[in-house]
Amino acid sequence: MRVLNAAYNHPLPAEEKAVVPLAGGIIQHGYQCGMIWGAALAAGAQAYRLWGPGPQAETMAVMATQKLTTAFRTTNRHINCLELTHIDHTSSTLEMIKYFVFKGGTISCLIMAKKFAATALGEINSALNQEYLVPSSLPVSCAALVARKMGLSDFNSTMAAGLAGGIGLSGGGCGALGTAIWGQGLKSCKGGKDKVEYKSPKASETINNFLKYTGYEFECATIVGRSFQDVGDHADYLRNGGCSKIMDILSVE
């Protein structure tokens, strides 16, 4: 995220610090790699700069994130951290030391990030340069809705838009959940904190409340019982009340 923001000459220190808990696939739960979360947020920021608030920018952010997710999978075969590293929050300290120290996992992740940053910049630019007229009706993104319910700005809400439907409608780990955790960290940073705790008590509480309601499911496609064809399909689902209770739970302060 930091590299992409710098490429657009728009560093966002608070937003970049707040994304830390999404590393490891949502506080090391093994879902989508944190690089995808960060790239998606950077794509949303650039979409807002081009179109301002509203459905056009949100739609373009989702479309850019679809391309990012596809590109990451093409390059790395998988999008989930667990499948890439074979460790998650249930792994022992010894298993983590073996992966990150003895197997060179830290270096591997840095190399992966370097390669993906260049690819991601091209995918974002390609997606956002498309001429795509969207319907004027809202809502478009569950993630953007949660951000607004939390009181985040239009800019930050648009940043989160691409996380919809399990990041770019891919059906993976819930993008609305990721938005809530990112939003909590962002508020903390803008409130004066220098850094965001990787495993904050507030984030853990949010995850627990989310899992109690979803029957201990993380993934969007499993929770809603379907995949989304495109942005319009997802928007229709939201307009018909889809995931409204989950969004209410996630936006509670």
Provide the descriptors you would attach to this structure in a database record:
mainly alpha, 62% helix, 0% strand, globular, 14 helices
Q: What is the helix/strand order?
A: HHHHHHHHHHHHHH
- Poorly predicted runs are none
Q: Overall mean pLDDT score?
A: 94
Overall form: globular
- Helix run count: 14
- The residue fraction in helices comes out at 55-70%
Category from helices, strands and their pairing: mainly alpha
Instruction: Describe the main β-sheet briefly.
Output: none
Write down the Rg.
17 Å
Beta-strand content estimate: under 5%
Number of strands: 0
Distance between the termini: 26 Å
Describe what this molecule looks like in 3D:
- With 253 residues, the protein is an all-alpha fold.
- Helices cover 62% and strands 0% of the residues.
- It is built from 14 helices and no strands.
Which helices and strands occur, and which strands form pairs?
Blueprint: H1 2-7, H2 13-18, H3 34-51, H4 55-76, H5 81-85, H6 93-102, H7 105-128, H8 142-149, H9 154-160, H10 175-190, H11 201-214, H12 220-224, H13 231-239, H14 244-250
In short:
The chain has about 250 residues and is an all-alpha fold. The protein is built from 14 helices and no strands.
